[in-house]
């Protein structure tokens, strides 16, 4: 039996060398950056005639500035050239930079180290686009969520470990030489791993690279806006980095002022938050069922706001001096830790499907440049996050818990706007909740549905939940043909309109709706979409498959496309079926139903007919109802 766990990828050459490369890079970036900040704060006492506070902020700016200046060029390079070669050149540059940095750390050349911090940011800016653009080429579509989950987990764990190791190494007797050796060794490890990354061919080998940072950055943003849903997903990812930067920036003062904690509390809060994001990222693979599941994204945003608000109301009224052990053992402090862990977990659930969605929905020829645009927006949002923190905490005089509360409310507003603009998020959320609460759905042979091109699905009709079950199981968006009366209901109708379902009614009663339905079906198939019909024309009243009506023949006569027969088992007897009386009018026979959705082999349009498809659906369903 095939192993579907994403951890299987860590044993395969097509992923493991890349994972080690990106982990070592993120680890090294954060070790070097944080070590330099600690050296400046505690050893140098300020540089360039500036105070240490100003120098710390200057360092943050120097690291993030290259993302604005060079991401556009980095995206072009990643699209223009073979990606494993690009990664190796980037890692070679890291070895050179960190080799010089090692000398600077050994001898205390702090001014030189600041220049190298800028170059480290340049190297990271070039690695970002190729880092995410290579994944869809190295992984199968069913592995994309798991691969992204591992990358996000690895990135945040590397950030945590790098930050912690900087603090540990600073306590060494010869901190400069110790850190110097560490950054040099990590750079070499990254380069060695990069040599093992398999080839990933250039997506746009004829692309002309233009070294015009500002103009190309503007052009890059235009490319990102080509697909409205992808662009809003990019904005949502950048919003997450906005929130994450806001939380991480405030942890030191939050721990000191509102928890009366020592430096171990700051470390613990950082560890809890980071571990939460890593755990949430890994959980995406199981919750999504090995596919890109946008329904998880609203769960992430709801959790981010709920636990952010809960954090505000769980702050201790009279804090006492604390260390890391008290945070874990004291009930009031422990609740704060739980809230931060949950914020991290739901952050991971929020961000991983979005990254995978952007990768999947972006054309390969522009994928790296779109991801480069994403990196620019991430950097911009993090800068705005810092400015908002200064404004709220300084000018408006909010406390840090109050600032976290404002962020949680803002998150709800941002989420509502995104989900209103992209109904797929809300639609998939409802489908995901139903298919993971009321029902336990087992899929059989759904890979028989073509991954591209028009296809007609035909299925038996058992309950009002049939369409939602199928929509939650099939990876491609499905246009359902449904009774027009459902569209007249305020709740169900609005929901299925969001799903772009096609209303139909009897030709004798509503001829205009009947004709319009077949026109819409033909338009959707002509556009290469998946259309699903229930040829019985009504819900079964006895649990058996009724006679298929000739509508399927009319559809295929106008637009010959492959037909995939499907069958549902286990929905007869549910609250939404006519078992025991009209649906919704009787007590269900069972809850938490285990149901099955089966797909047969595709039937060519020339061999398909209502009668033949009816027999195939009956054979798939078998004796089970």
TrEMBL record:
Cited Gene3D superfamilies: MFS general substrate transporter like domains
Transmembrane annotation, as ranges: 31-50, 56-77, 89-107, 113-135, 147-168, 174-195, 229-249, 264-284, 296-316, 336-358, 370-397, 403-419
SUPFAM superfamilies: Glycerol-3-phosphate (1)-acyltransferase, MFS general substrate transporter
Subcellular location: Cell membrane
Top-level division of the source organism's lineage: Bacteria
CDD domains the UniProt entry points to: LPLAT_AGPAT-like (cd07989), MFS_MefA_like (cd06173)
Primary location class: membrane
Keywords linked to the UniProt accession: Acyltransferase, Cell membrane, Membrane, Transferase, Transmembrane, Transmembrane helix, Transport
GO cellular component, one term: plasma membrane
Topology in the lipid bilayer: Multi-pass membrane protein
Protein name: Phospholipid/glycerol acyltransferase
């Amino acid at each position: 039996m095939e192993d579907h766990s994403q951890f299987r990828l860590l044993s395969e050459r097509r992923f493991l060398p890349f994972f080690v490369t990106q982990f070592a890079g993120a680890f090294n970036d954060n070790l070097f950056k944080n070590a330099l900040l600690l050296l400046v704060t505690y050893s140098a006492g300020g540089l360039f005639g500036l105070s240490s506070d100003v120098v710390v902020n200057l360092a943050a700016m120097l690291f993030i500035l290259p993302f604005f200046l060079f991401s556009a060029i980095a995206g072009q390079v990643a699209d223009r050239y073979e990606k494993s070669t690009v990664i190796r050149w980037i890692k070679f540059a890291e070895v050179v930079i960190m080799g010089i940095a090692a000398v600077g750390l050994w001898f205390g050349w702090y001014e030189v180290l600041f220049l190298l911090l800028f170059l480290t940011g340049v190297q990271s800016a070039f690695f970002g686009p190729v880092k995410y653009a290579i994944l869809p080429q190295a992984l199968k579509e069913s592995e994309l969520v798991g691969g992204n989950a591992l990358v996000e987990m690895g990135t945040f764990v590397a950030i945590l470990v790098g930050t912690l190791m900087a603090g540990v190494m600073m306590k060494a007797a010869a901190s400069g030489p110790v850190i110097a050796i560490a950054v040099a060794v990590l750079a070499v490890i990254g380069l060695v791993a990069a040599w093992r990354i398999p080839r990933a061919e250039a997506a746009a080998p004829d692309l002309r690279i233009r070294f015009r940072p500002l103009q190309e950055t503007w052009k890059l943003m235009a490319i990102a806006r080509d697909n409205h849903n992808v662009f809003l997903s990019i904005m949502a990812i950048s919003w997450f980095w906005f929130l994450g930067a806001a939380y991480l920036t405030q942890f030191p003062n939050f721990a000191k002022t509102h928890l009366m904690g020592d430096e171990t509390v700051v470390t613990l809060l950082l560890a809890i938050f980071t571990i939460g994001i890593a755990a949430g990222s890994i959980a995406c693979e199981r919750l999504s069922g090995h596919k890109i599941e946008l329904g998880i994204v609203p769960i992430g945003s709801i959790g981010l706001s709920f636990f952010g608000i809960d954090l505000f109301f769980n702050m201790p009224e009279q804090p006492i001096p604390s260390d890391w052990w008290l945070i874990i053992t004291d009930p009031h402090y422990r609740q704060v830790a739980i809230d931060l862990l949950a914020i991290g977990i739901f952050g991971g659930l929020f961000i991983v499907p979005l990254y995978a969605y952007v990768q999947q929905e972006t054309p390969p020829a522009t994928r790296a440049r779109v991801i480069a645009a994403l990196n620019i927006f991430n950097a911009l949002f993090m800068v705005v996050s810092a400015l908002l923190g200064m404004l709220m905490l300084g000018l408006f005089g909010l406390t840090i818990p109050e600032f976290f509360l404002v962020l949680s409310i803002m998150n709800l507003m941002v989420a509502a706007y995104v989900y209103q603009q992209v109904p797929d998020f809300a639609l998939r959320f409802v489908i995901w909740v139903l298919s993971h609460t009321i029902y336990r759905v087992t899929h059989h042979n759904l890979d028989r549905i073509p991954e591209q091109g028009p296809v007609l699905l035909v299925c038996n009709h058992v309950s009002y939940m049939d369409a939602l079950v199928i929509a939650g199981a099939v990876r491609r968006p499905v246009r359902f043909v449904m009774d027009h009366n459902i569209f007249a209901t305020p709740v169900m109708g609005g929901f299925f309109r969001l799903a772009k379902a096609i209303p139909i009614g009897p030709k004798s009663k509503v001829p205009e709706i009947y004709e319009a339905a077949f026109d819409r079906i033909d338009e959707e198939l002509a556009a290469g979409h998946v259309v699903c019909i229930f040829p019985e024309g009504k819900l079964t009243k006895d649990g058996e498959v009724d006679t298929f009506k000739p509508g399927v023949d009319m559809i295929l006569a106008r637009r010959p496309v492959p037909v995939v027969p499907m069958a549902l088992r286990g929905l007869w007897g549910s609250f939404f079926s006519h078992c025991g009386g009209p649906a919704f009018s009787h007590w269900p026979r069972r809850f938490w139903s285990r149901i099955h959705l089966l797909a047969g082999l595709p039937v060519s349009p020339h061999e398909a007919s209502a009668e033949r498809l009816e027999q195939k659906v009956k054979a798939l369903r078998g004796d089970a109802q």
